[in-house]
Amino acid sequence: MSNRSPSPEVIELMGEVAELMLAELDALVAEMSAAEVELSPVLGVDASAMTDTSASNHAGARQLLNLFTRRDTNWTVRTASFELPHEMLDVAHTVARRGLDLDVIFQSYRYAQNVAWRHFMAHATRIAPPGPVLMELLQVSSERLFDYIDYALTQVIAATQREREDMLGGALARRAEAIRLVLDDAPIHSDRASERLGYQLGRRHTALVLWSGPGSEAQGALESAATTLARAMGARPPLTLSVGASALWAWLGSDAEPDLAALREPADKIAPGIRVAVGSTLRGIAGFRRSHDQALTVQRLLAENPDGPSVGLYRDLEVTALVTENISRAAEFVQSTLGALAEDNPGAERLRETLRVFLEEADNAPRTATRLHTHRNTVLQRVARAAELLGFAPGDRRLALGLALELGHHLGHRVLTRTD
C-alpha cells in the first residue's frame, strides 16, 4: 500500500459509496450469504447455520462500511483499534461444533468479499468521474477491504482453533463425533453407538431443534429448555448437541409412545425468544435420524415466519412441508382460496385463526372459544364474517380451505397478500 494518504476527494467518495451500500445492506447480505451457501452447502443445511452465516455477514459488512463512512483519511486496518462484532466470532463456535473444515471459513469469506466488491465498484463507477480519481478510489477501497477481510479471517480462524482445542479429548467431542456418525448413516452398530453416547438408540426417539436469535449467548437457556420439555413429555434426560452459538439439537428417549401435545404446555416456562421444532416419535437408529430430519424441516418452516408459534410439531406441519417445496405456488393457492381473508393485517389474521381452530374443532363453537379464550358468540360472529369474505360456506371447500388456513398460519407473510 502506498505511504501517501488518500486525497480528501477520494475519502469523501468512499464514504458516499459506503452510505449507498448501507442503504441496501439487507439485499447485499442476502447475496453474500447465497454465494457462500452455493460454495459450501453445509452452511445452509438448516435454519440455524443459515442464520449464523447471515448474521456474521451482516455484522461484518456493517462494521466495515461504517468505518468507511467516518471519512478518516489516515484510517487503516493496521493502525485502527477495533474488535470484530461477536456475530462474526460466533461462526467459530458453529464451525467447530459441526466439525467443518477451516477451508470453509476461508473460501466463504473470499466469496462474500467478491460480492461486496462488485457492489462497491458498481456504485463507485456511477458517482465518480472516469479518470485518476476513480482509479485512486478503487485502489484505496480495495486495499482497505482486503486488509479488513484478512484481519477478520485471522481472528475467526484463531477463535475456531481455540474452540476445537477446548473440545479435543473431551466427552463433548466424543459425543459430537458419535452423533454425526449416526446421522450420516455410517457403518456403526447401534449398541456401540449407544455406549459411546450414553443413550439407548434402540428405544423411541423424539428429536428437537431448539434455537434463538443470533448472538444471544443462549446455550444455557437452550439446554434448560430441552430438559424442561423432556420432563413435560415424561422422557429421560435429553441427549443434546450444541451446533452453534444459538442452536441446540436434542433427542428425547422413551419406551412408550409419548404425548407430543404435552410439549406445547411448558412453552411459557422456557426463556423468551427460544423456539422449538419437534420431529415425530420413531424407533431405533433409523428413527433417530428420521425424527431429526423432520425437526430440521419444521425449523426451516418456523424460522421463515418469525411471528409464528414458538413450538412446532412435524405431525402438524407435514402437509405444509410438502406443499411449500414451491413457495410461489403455495402463495398462489392461499391467496386464490382465501381471497380477501388472505390479507396480511391483524383483522384478517384474527378471522383466519378463529376459522382455522373452528374447523379443527369440527365446527364446535364452545371448544373453539375455549382454545381462543373468547366467547362462543364471538367465535360465531367471526366465522360468519370470514364466510362473507370467502364468498362461500367453509364446509363447501373444507379440505382446500383448511390447508390454505394452515399455510397462512405457519408461513405468514410469505404466502399472504400484502396490503401496504
Structural commentary:
This protein starts with 7 loop residues before the first helix and ends in a 9-residue tail after the last helix. The chain is flat. It folds into three domains: 8-167, Orthogonal Bundle (Globin-like); 203-321, Alpha-Beta Plaits (2-Layer Sandwich); 326-414, PucR C-terminal helix-turn-helix domain (Arc Repressor Mutant, subunit A). The longest helix is centred in the middle third of the chain and has 36 residues, at 132-167. The protein has helices at 8-23, 25-39, 47-69, 86-97, 102-127, 132-167, 171-183, 190-197, 219-233, 284-303, 314-323, 327-338, 346-360, 365-372, 376-390, 398-411; strands spanning 204-211, 239-244, 247-254, 275-283, 311-313. It has 16 helices and five strands. The mean pLDDT is 86.
Sum up the structure in keywords:
420 residues; alpha+beta; Globin-like; Alpha-Beta Plaits; Arc Repressor Mutant, subunit A; 3 domains; five-stranded mixed beta sheet; 8% strand; PucR family transcriptional regulator; CdaR_GGDEF
Low-pLDDT stretches are: none
Helix coverage percent:
55-70%
CATH topology name of the largest domain: Globin-like
Q: Report the portion of residues in β strands.
A: 5-15%
Largest sheet: 5 strands, mixed
The CATH superfamily of the largest domain is Globins
**Broad shape:** flat
Report the end-to-end length measured between terminal Cα atoms.
49 Å
Strand order, main sheet: write it out: 2-3-1-4-5
Oligomer description: single chain
Number of helices: 16
Our Rg estimate from Cα atoms comes to 25 Å
